Request: fold
Amino acid sequence: MSKIKLGDSVRFVNENMQGIVTSLHNNTAGVTIEDDFEIPVPINEIVRIEEVVSKPIVDKKPITEKSRFVKIYSGFHIAFHRINEKQLELILHNSESDWATIAVYFNQKLVHKVSIAIETNVSLGNFNMDEINQLPEMIFVITPLREEFKPIKLLTKKIIFTEKEFHSALRQCYFLAKQAYCFRLDN
Reply:
């Protein structure tokens, strides 16, 4: 049996509920459920939900390829995905503009200035999972550009993460095709 960690998806043993572990204290876990409500639960009363469940293929049906031009998501996004049990990588994604220039500040110091094409990702570094509540203040200054390289509108997003906010953002990330902590920068 694997150890319960912050950010794990869990199910209750005695209840028909599930959620994400947002805090740990001795033998008690704080589990945030759908309603954004944190419930304290003894660790021995929850089980970890595995990300991949193996199911036998009953019958093979032909797979119809989806159109590559249907765009469900748009905007500028960041996602923290797990590299291993302790490390997260921060990825920046552009699904809005033909090109964008993005300046990233941590604690008011410029740490990255990148130009990013549409539907591409850029790594902004690695972070320690245990220090989520101590992440630096992040400011993203985004200058989206269209085909003629004319600026559309300058966007600025300031983010300070709380542990609960961070762990409740765990979901399937569309641009990484795996579980990650996802945030939109331009809403």
Q: What stands out?
A: The CA atoms of residues 56 and 131 lie 39 Å apart. The chain is about 5% helix and 50% strand. The radius of gyration is 19 Å.
